[in-house]
Amino acid sequence: MTESKRVIPCTEAVRQLWDYLDDAISPEDHDKVERHLSFCRKCCGELEFGQEIREFLGSKTSQEIPPEVKARLERFVEEL
Amino acid sequence: MGEGEVRDRSREAFQRLAAAELPALYSLARRLVRDGAEDMVQEALLHGYRSFGSLKEDATGGRWLKTILVNVFRDQLRKRARSVEEFPVDEVEEFSLYRTLIDEDPLPYSDTLHHDFLQAFDKDDVRVVLMRLPEIYRGPLVLRYMDGFATKQIARLLDTPLGTILARIHRGRRLFEKELWIYAEEIGLLRQEAVR
Ligand SMILES: [Zn+2]
Fold this sequence. Notes:
The complex is a heterodimer of chains A (80) and B (196).
Chain A: H1 10-21, H2 27-39, H3 41-59, H4 67-79
Chain B: H1 11-32, H2 37-50, H3 61-79, H4 90-93, H5 97-104, H6 113-119, H7 123-131, H8 135-146, H9 151-157, H10 162-186, H11 191-195
Helix pairs in contact in B: 1-2, 1-3, 2-3, 7-10, 8-10, 9-10
Bound molecules: zinc ion.
């Protein structure tokens, strides 16, 4: 069976999940991960959570700047 | 953008751009380094001012200043290169926060355990956790997932091979998951466990 060559265990699928999400793996590995996900619910959970952590990180950026730092940097800019 | 368009590259134009971008620049610097964010911004502004003429389109000014800030960060990394160590990641490599949450079940009354676990952290918590990562991992992770730079661009900006950047993002993510879990234990998010 040539099929078996394309089946990977959970450990390998999980190792590649973020790269998979990031499109940072080769087409062959991409297929392998996709094939694994098609039958493994546990790794689907990992994948969803991986996606959620990425969004989580993306949502934790602030544009905050303490007023005194802002004032100092503004003065710096004015002096340029 | 036609050839004939007049681009204002005066001192005043730079000052307007810089003033508008201060919050974005400072917050990015704070994600990248534990100390010295303000100095980093100043240095980036100086570099930016000197090369303001090379900015092609006004609309990309904010992004352009950010890339200059990342260059300053890269130079700092280089200077510290000897003190920056690759983290012993073997044990971290196999850590899965997803599985750990299922095994430890810190929020037994939750139907959406993984989601609710993440909801327990605010921006300051995330910064504390990020600062625990060695900066060679933190930098690429922050730039990729918090500031939306493409991996290829990160490789170029940090002057590091793409494969190395991908590996560092990968490890950085694992380290982040692990440190987030440790932090959750520290702040008592896992009180249930302690009581048992
Ligand atoms: Zn699996």
